[in-house]
Amino acid sequence: MRRIKIELSYDGTDYHGWQVQPGLPTIQGTLEQAISEIEGRPVEVAGSGRTDAGVHALAQVAAITIENPIPVENLLRAVNRLLPADIRVMRAEEVARDFHPRFHAKAKTYEYRIFRGEICSPFERRYVYHRPYPMDVEQMFQAAPLLEGEHDFTAFAATDERDELGASKVRRIFCSRLAQEGERLVYRVTGGGFLKHMVRNVVGVLLEIGKGNVDRAGFLARLETGCKIPPGPTAPARGLFLISVEY
Q: 87-95 and 2-10: which strand pairing?
């Protein structure tokens, strides 16, 4: 048996997220179908984490266990021949049998893209959140780094089926920055782990700061343990990209 680590990119527009769901197109399900065809038996694809419906990835990491002796470079070509054009395996390598893309990950980086121009090109609309309205972006710039460090992100997390297990919602953020890049605002965040909808909710609140509906104190209040402020608003999935996973 061989453990293969793969790095893939995908346009998540037409998929119901990463995780397999009966009767619905998902990234994990599509990969498993292609790789199982090559292996000649069902193969499970383990990912570094779940991305939501409509979220994209530049470098998602996953792993498979197969018996097929095919060289990894040939495996990469074979898988990509079977995959739809909006999912591509970019790299593949053989790794230790105990490698797990989720449990061994040290950090992940996400990027959220907001288009500020008056007219959004039809070729960008699937990959940005179009917000051409007046905003105090300087206040947004100042608020973004306040997330760095270890905080309770309950007020930025959507309800998850795993909540019943009582897992902690404390997460460590290594870097949180918002920058202007031409007609785009780009929010980039690196952390040890993320909760469901966490990045999209952070962006949603940053936009509320830009609109003057939330001030610095209100933003910091959301990071206090026991905060009862409900999560949201949630920015649309289409502007979010998983950029990298570090090991």
A: antiparallel
